[in-house]
Amino acid sequence: MFASINGVRIYFDIEGSGYVPDGAYMRHRPVCFAIHGGPGSDHADFKPWLTPLSEHMQIVYMDLRCNGQSERVDPATCTLEQLTDDIEGLRQHLGFDKIILMGHSFGGMVAQVYATRYPESLDRLVLVCTAPSHEFYQAALKFAERIGTPEQIKVIPELFEGRIQDDEHLVRWWDICYDLYFHNHDEQLMWETGNRPIGSLEVANYTFKHFMPHYDVRPQLPALQVPTLIVGADYDWITPLSQAEEIHSLIPNSKLVVFHESGHMPFIEEHQDFIDELTDFLIRVPQHEAWKQERQQSVAEFQGDLALIALHSISEPMSVTGIPGQWAPLDADQPGLTLTASASDELTVDGQMIEGTITLEADVTTVRISDTLTAVATTQPGSNHLLSIYDAEADAIHSFKGIDSFAYDRKWVIKGKFVKGDNDRTMAFAHVDDAEGNLRYHQSPGDISFTIEDKIFAFTPFLSSGSLIVIFGDQSNGKSTYGLGRMLVVTPDTDGGATLDFNRSFLPPCAFSPHFNCPFPPAQNRLPFEVTAGEKQVI
Length: 539
Description:
By secondary structure, this protein is α+β, with helices and mostly antiparallel strands. It has eleven helices and 31 strands.
């Protein structure tokens, strides 16, 4: 596809859908612009290597002006600033809001300049095997002296000083030097990837001769606020690891990932690891951060865990200290309560004043007592008639500073299997506030088996509001994490698979309020090692 951008015919290609079905809704996916290396190459460098990312985002491949299938114009117009203006122009032309920008090699240099010129257009930045200044060239020559042949060392300056005479000369240069770009020499792979791009000698010569000697974005990088992933490789000769480390030292809020078995193109040589790292940074970590933010907000809501100031067992008609009205249980096997009140009590449900007797459906009906106080009928296994009192101005809410947690780590996303049992099966759980030896029986329709370090474990979950909840313990409890243990929601797949994402291990309600009566992890749910993922403690 082509678009007229800043008066030049620019080629672009799009892979992946921008909107995908998600249940009864359509979900928007992020957009990633992929900017190729060079100068004088094109977007074919990335294909098919980035294709797995299209399962999570829409990828826009772009051939920079004078490169690939884009229009050949005066190379003097191909300044790094103009190339960034073209990226911004294409973004606007396609109607995108903030984008992810990924640049490799020379494309990473363009991406850095873009980030300094159009920071408001960026959601995230990915810099793959690139450099912050023209000084990379001297570092590259030193690296080549260690690993290159005499012939390679002799001809390297011909390209990087803009002295390639014609296409035949360019082909000869690549024949001599191409294996420098790879750590593992797969001749077939190297031949295929090297022949795919449409070369552009004129812009390569002009850029290396006139623009590259002046390239230095280092003074501007410390001002960047965009989350940035920097990728380096141990065997990258042309933009050595020192360049990635320098970028990392200059950009706040950046992360450096080093590939140890790759040359200049880790997205080829360590393909799956590269895809995993990018998916973590671009998709999983943002999703995890959003989940953490939701958790922080939910526990501090007007009926969040922090707001619970009392829990009463209503075994007979009774008054509750400090709360108007008369509260009574429904039948023994029927969850819920009744409330009898007069207009003078000023109790309301859905804005309507209570006069007389009403039924409070468990975990549904909210009674407003005052501007900050509310009451809800609730249940626990063995206790159908409980009354929870919440205060939106509780001391615990005002002193709450957040939830400390571990950083996201995909090694703690464990594939398991849900072994379905009898839907009516119940399992015994001891609870914090119950007398020793007293057990409550929760519905538990199966077990979850999984393997960690070649050892098989099985969790017994309980069913709550249609979800399978695991209360588990591990060796971090009482040290870096909450002493009782933590909880995890597990949703089995239709084929019986069950993913345990320990990154979403959350603190039980009793970590936020002493009025909750939490279950203890049963013996089979206690792991003999530390789970360094998920929530740690209330701050």
